[in-house]
């Protein structure tokens, strides 16, 4: 018997990106019915989909083997209360199905008995005997054991292990796993949520629960009015999904203009040498004051040197908004950058306070489900890295491609991360290019793109020096790429 699931859940079941299934819907390979996918259609497209390959068995085995480990209990399993509620909901659903089956079974038995009585009154009438035989055979087939729908079993397991959250009016979806809050899960899925303190004090993450149940994970000080409670409002930062399916009503940021300017004092967590002239600066914000930003944006960093005044500079954030406490920056050696001079001189050490002001910039991902192509030159990899990680968390693009030009001695200082993405993700590919001349390197990248991608309708994101961005932009436009599908950032 076919089972209907959402596109989001279908992607989880067969282990592909949601964008891949959406592309198959657009080209007619996969047909939706009322926005849902049948498991029969999924198995026809992915006949090799098995429970073992989905990772669910491995996850269950790990939970079993480490059942008493605190880390597994907290990170992989929901709380006992949440598990109990989800299992209770499934048991109620099973009980309802059994009731219906018992009623239908009783109805068929009564019909069969009535047909026998009528057949006994007309011994020579073969019609009644044929009808009785048909009912008897139909009942036997209905009671026979059917083959198990593997994807339906997997779906039932997912409903216990994780919850599916649908956001209105945007229609975005995300999953809640382990003991994560609604806010944490939404940010990890790449949603542009409105929030502030993250600990239940400000009320900025207030949402309305349309359907489903939530359960409080921690105390919060923000006081909801009685009217808000009656209407189903709650705080995302202090609640998680109790039911396997949840629908929330909330407004998401539509772009950079919806993100307010923030002033945060962060602490240096680490300074790591990536190459002779490149440092990775890791800042951590206070738990009660996280930075809300969009992938690809920049901030102004300020630091006070005792007796020497303030040093400040604007740098793109190299980390994903899903981890809003840990901010990463690639700082290149630059004598004109006062902050960089102090960083390379060793004046800025772990524990130092750094002022963060922002975010700024409009180099952000546009809405859509086209394949994504990223091109970076040298330090332009920083905002590109943020965009790639955000795109991966959204899981909506059919494919992602990266072209990275290195013109200096530091080369591709973060190439190990590119290899890790490529090995872990089928939809990600990358090409590293080296050339001392920025314009020549940009044209080489354009040629590589033309060979691999120009027969595909893609969105392009370019970041780096002015010469790199302008040359590659012109090459793409000359090849027929629409201006609206090219987003640039000059660093």
Task: Please give a structural write-up.
- With 491 residues, this protein is α/β, with parallel strands linked by helices.
- The protein contains 16 helices and 20 strands.
- The strands form five sheets. The protein has a six-stranded antiparallel sheet, with helices on one face. A five-stranded mixed sheet has the order 4-3-9-5-7.
- A hairpin with a 3-residue loop joins strand 12 and strand 13 (309-316).
- The protein is elongated, with a radius of gyration of 28 Å.
Helix content: 25-40%
Q: Which regions have little confidence, pLDDT < 50, spanning 5+ residues?
A: 51-73
Structural class from helices and strands?
A: alpha/beta
Number of helices: 16
**Structural Rg:** 28 Å
Entry keywords:
491 residues, alpha/beta, six-stranded antiparallel beta sheet, five-stranded mixed beta sheet, 16 helices, 20 strands, elongated
Gist of the model:
By secondary structure, the chain is of the alpha/beta class.
Ordered list of secondary-structure elements with their pairings:
Elements: E1 4-6, H1 7-14, H2 18-26, E2 36-38, H3 39-45, H4 51-54, H5 56-65, H6 70-75, H7 80-121, H8 126-143, H9 150-161, E3 162-168, E4 173-177, H10 182-188, E5 206-211, E6 214-216, H11 226-231, E7 233-235, E8 239-241, E9 245-249, E10 262-275, E11 278-284, E12 298-305, E13 309-316, E14 326-332, H12 338-345, E15 353-360, E16 372-377, H13 381-394, E17 400-406, H14 415-424, E18 428-434, H15 438-452, E19 459-464, H16 466-478, E20 486-490
Helix pairs in contact: 1-2, 7-8, 7-9, 15-16
